[in-house]
Amino acid sequence: MFIGFYLFATFHFVLIFEIFFDLFYR
Q1: What is the DSSP string of the chain?
Q2: How far apart are the C-alpha atoms of 17 and 11, rounded to whole Å?
Q3: How far apart are CA 5 and CA 8, in angstroms?
Q4: Structure confidence by residue, pLDDT tens digits, 1-26
Q5: Residues 14, 4: Cα–Cα separation, whole Å
Q6: Radius of gyration over alpha carbons of the chain, in Å?
Q7: Is the dihedral of CA 5, 10, 11, 16 positive or negative?
Q8: For 18, left (φ over 0), alpha (ψ -120 to 50), or beta?
Q9: 19 vs 26: CA distance, rounded Å
């Protein structure tokens, strides 16, 4: 259960980071 939560949090973190990076890069 802890591994699933870690992967879920990591996925959301990467998704948000990629969106912010795309906004700042333009």
Answers
A1: -HHHHHHHHHHHHHHHHHHHHHHHH-
A2: 10
A3: 5
A4: 788 889 899 999 999 999 999 998 88
A5: 15
A6: 11
A7: positive
A8: alpha
A9: 11
